[in-house]
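Q: Fold this one first, please.
A: Sequence and structure below.
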Amino acid sequence: MSGFELSARERFGEPNRRLSTAKEMRFGTHGSVSVNVETGDYYDFEVEQGGKLAEIEVVPAANAPRLVVQKYDYIAESGELAYQVVRYMPKTFRQRRPDGSGGWKWNLDDVPLVPYRLPDIRSATDVVIVEGEKDADALADLGICATTKPMGSGSWPDELTPHFEGKRVWIVPDNDDVGRKTADRTAAALGSVAASVTVADLCAGMRAKADVSDWLAANDADGLMPALRSFEPRLRVVASGFSANDMRAVEPRQWLYGKHLIRGYVSATVSPGGVGKTTLELIEAIALATARPLLGVPVRERVRVWHYNLEDPRDELMRRVWAICEHFAIPPVELEGWLFLDSGRDCKMIVAEPVNGIVVPAVAAEQVVEQMQRWDIGVLQVDPLVKAHWAEENDNKQIDAVLDVFADIAKRCGAAIDLVHHTRKPPSGFVATAGDINTARGAGALAGAVRSARTITPMSEKESEAFDIDPSRRGWYIRVDDAKGNMSAPSSDAVWCERHTVELSQGDYVGVLAPWSPPDPFEGLGVDGARRALTLIGDGLDDGQRYTWTQRSAGRWAGRVLIEMGISDGAAKSIIRAWQQSGVLFSGEYKNPVRRRSDEGLFVDFDKMPGANNA
């Protein structure tokens, strides 16, 4: 008698023997109470309530004989009994084989191993591998070809593998680490012969050690195969030969927005807080939804965009969209059917979660796919990434698994996904470098997993000085830089934006971003002015000393020549830097007549002068 049977008798009394079966005990005159003796689940049909019984530990008396609960026959290819697994109570197993004289030998020495229910496997296309003969029989009762191996968990015997050649195989582990490791070893062994192998962690999230029988007790049996098919098969590692025809048949990449968003791939936008990342994302969403290059970035195709903001409420998103439409003179009706806005405050969107240390897709991942396919959404913006999963942010393996979930969504939907991610908290005195993906907080797996990445940074002190921007207003300017372009040529040109304020008709003031170009330091100088300045620099100072790069030698800094010509200090720095990079100005050694020793000074390459050789 099992522990659940004892618990049932203790709670409900003696069972109704007429209505009870080996797997189900019924109590009451009409059997109104049902108890599953294998799982402990019970239900009272009269009060319409149920639950789960505690299992009473069965302690046999000293020297008491073990009770045989079940015998499982393993049939050889010849159709004869190969061996038998005997299950006892308390729960133990032993294997035995016929001795040829009507008796048994309690070992499997020299007996070829076969999978359980081999005759079913030979005629089936789809096979489910479970842990234990009891579960295999339970699935067989539902008309599903199911099997297991003898001798419990552990390594998969190689001699079982040929029986699965060409089969579609699903492996369902019990809900524990041992079960998952056994499933992984089984999948690795069958990958070379099976048509496909899928590890279906069906019982994840259930009680510890839950198995497929527990799943069936809690779910509709008709949903078992659809549930198994929802898991992705493991790909077999094979060497694929090159084909010139296959190469010529490759479709061009489907860029949607500049060189940042591409159909079927995941991109990332890395930004510190408070610089306008959400506003930027919404402007780009509207640009894509209306096919307008609002920030000067090419929009290759009008697409439906889903902006899922996991921080701000939906009414705040509506205010920002309203302000953007006002600033860029876009009729809001144009966005209907093309722009989708949702807030994590109304419904969280957790697409990945750790289960027993392994990050797996959460229920929301499939819901996202369903919605994107239903509405033909071409771009999904997730802001911020950290609130779209429950993985450990500093664990590379877990973050890589999260990004795999997003990559799968992008591939299945043929869409581009932009993940907005925060920069790490900087140490005192740290200044973020524009275009540096390594400023992203958390694990470095993000940089390796996305196909394109960019950074958003505010204008630095040096930049405001170079552009002659009032230091008190430099926070109104941001720059967007390529941080990783696996599929495009690197770009050294930042996209600059300036903040503006829009007053809505209901009285709110909302910030927007608009394109902005840094002033041209050469503006007002012209070719003749540049040639004159370079000539003066090349001639050197009146005392015979030559000009230098650095402002530390204030009297000899080459920028002085430009400042005396009316050029601003910031522009002068930029011009000298540009001439240094082009090579028209270069440093060389000369005899300094004032210091009476060798020194470094600036010289001019007159062949590279503006206007030289009709350039």
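Q: Good. Now the second chain.
A: Here it is, same layout.
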Amino acid sequence: MFFVKQKTNKLFDSFLNIFNKAKDSLKQPVSDDINQQLLLQLNKKKIPSWSQFKQLSKILQKPEKIKLLIILLVFLISASALGWRMYWRNSIEVPAIGGTYTEGLIGAPQFINPILANTDVDRDLVRLVFSGLVKLNTNGEIVPDLAAAYTIDAEATTYTFELKPNLKWHDGHPLTADDIIFTIERITDADFKSPLKNSFSGVDVKRINDRTIQFKLAKPFTPFLSIMTVGIIPEHLWYSVPSFSAALTDLNIKPVGSGPYKFKSLTKDTNGSIKNYSLEIFENYHLDNAYIKELSFKFYEDFMTGVMALQNKNVEGLTYLPEENKDQINNKKINLHDLHYPQYTSVFFNPNNNSLLSDKDFRKALSLSVDKNRILTEVLNGAGKIIHTPILPGMTGYDESIKTEDFNTVAAAGILDDLGWTLSEDKQFRSKTIKAESDDEEDQVEELSIKLTTIDQSASVKIVSIIKENWEAIGIKTTLDIISKDKIKKDIIDPREYEVLVFGELININSGPYPFWHSSQNKHPGLNLSVLANKDIDEYLELARSAKTTQAKIEPLTNFQNKLLELNFAIFLYNPTYTYPTASKIKGLESLQFINLPADRFNNINSWYIKTKRTLTK
């Protein structure tokens, strides 16, 4: 700016010299030019008039005209620069509507329907297209969504919701209390086959008026509010669809919801599978409108293919980046967002398939001999946190002082010795002599062995390989059973066909540990993978589940954790970090720190932006 200012001053002096020269020329009488004489008589003011300025072109020589043009040009540039500088100092950059974002998802959509969705891909798209009465914010807190407000009675059995005014579906139809009632009725309809049916068992719903709905529970159930995040479906489109054929309607793929984005288009490959799926902004959204104009999704069979697409810039983001694939991303324009995620990987016991696991001391020996630090370092490169109970950091009841004993192979071997499992110098594995029941029978030597099962995924295979090495180091013969992804649930987990299982469980922080550890959940469709039962644990879980306040949950949850560790019901390994990669052009994700489900990464989607503009500060 100083250089421009100097040049401007010099040129302005030149301009004055040119003008003075022109003025002197005008003052010189020229007897043989009547026009010039008349011009001198028109205006004797020192400041030239506009008409005099117009005559400069007739007086100035060509070099002088060029100088004048340069002077005017520099003046305009300087004035513009000064004006832009003032504008920049007195304005801020803010998000603007525009741009597109393409993300890769693993799998393919089947039911973009909140009451039928049963895969991460389905839930991802549902989160963008549909709205519930309440929703989770970026801190995992429940806040109003379609509801303007809600109240809970003193007994915590009656929940009353009042809807926001002028709610609209994507097709322009009004959204009313009738749509809420219809959605709950369809969820509880056995023919509809909603996976949410059990969540609404014993719940009565009543329409008070067009904007008010009331739910009555048979008994207090603290997590009920989190269940009300379920998306609402439009009655005017679904009422004519028979419940028994709900899975077949096109509305599951081309949905109409009330969320921040609405369906735009899809393309299919030659096999009829969806290849691309596009959503666009819903301009009549009841909360703040989104900034990114269009979201596009591409679908891949596995993470390896998805990671390649991300690295090759075929997509700008991926639903999740596994730890083992991080070194494949060399694109500096990709940001990795490490999110807190309520998942833990543990070792679960099933004494029904191996009676040795009924002994809590034997389970303790197994626990003491697992090197958790090595697993975290070698499997996750440290991208996670070692855990000791299923209550994770940030969850109600978490207490960092509740811990298992440290890795100790000497203590573990001592327990096995006390249990009668001896290790001969010439043998690799421990054994025990089983006395014959009669003189006619011979004593039997039983070798100490166990079968360890897991899913055929890189991280899981590494974990069981380390555990096998740990257990065999203290004389336990360990056989690995690696099961393919398409069979692990149906053939192993649902029928509980395993002795010891290494598996990751994704929990809902609002529902608490009851579904995962109460003995009533030991069989499918329950989620308790350690097929063990204890009346004290059941009682603590029931007390925590029925507690009316957060404070009232803490004591029973603390007792639950201590009892769980006392009995060695499982070996809790780690809580991984959820890595979400997106292109650096995507802004507004700074507040995203915690997710309950992978779909929760879209909780603040209306804050994301690509384009920006400047606006004056007040």
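Q: Anything worth noting on the second one?
A: The longest strand covers residues 261-268.
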